[in-house]
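Before relying on records like the one below, remember that each one covers exactly one chain. Contacts with other chains, cofactors or solvent are not represented anywhere in the record.
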Amino acid sequence: MDITLKWKLAQAKELRWWSKYLKKKDKSDYLHWKKNYWHELLDGIRKDIFLNNGHDVLDAGCGPAGIFIVLDNYKVDAEDPLLDQYDEKLDHFKKADYPRVTFYSVALENFDPQKKYQCVFSMNAINHVSDMIAAFDKLVELTKDNGYVIISIDAHNYNFFKYLLRLIPADVLHPHQHDLKEYENMLISRNCALINSKLVKEEFFFNHYLLIARKKPKLIGS
């Protein structure tokens, strides 16, 4: 199946998934739980990154309750192609609830904020994009020299299932299928130093990892 068609199907499925998932959840309870989740994640990586209050931070592929909801001390932009639809159709997400965040309803590959960020997060979002190569290029392009790229991913444990799902679109929500080494190389090959590959959750088909990388400055004349 054409990757663009896979992405369009994935986006439609994503909106339906969120609608069904949040339908019976109390908004206050859900956001309280989600904020605790993000705070615990940030506490776990403080030894790997250094951010000052006021630094520019991007939440790429943020979804309706991304890490932007707890980044109170930073200048935060949040990007996701479904943001306008989330705002319209989900009671749990309203842009007006986050006046300190600047939202962009646009695909990552086409995002052009005319600025760079000290830290770019992409949490469980990179394998939802249309063009994986362009998306990784964009994540690194938008990161300042010596800034951080932090992504969370579901990485295949077995090559058989990885290649099978590349051929058969059984996992509609995720148009891209990769293993940990492939994800790590997508950062390393883009002039990023890998600081940590942190196992977050272990399962049979996929393990969930948090990858933390730092963008190397370009050498003068290179």
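The chain has one domain: 3-40+54-215.
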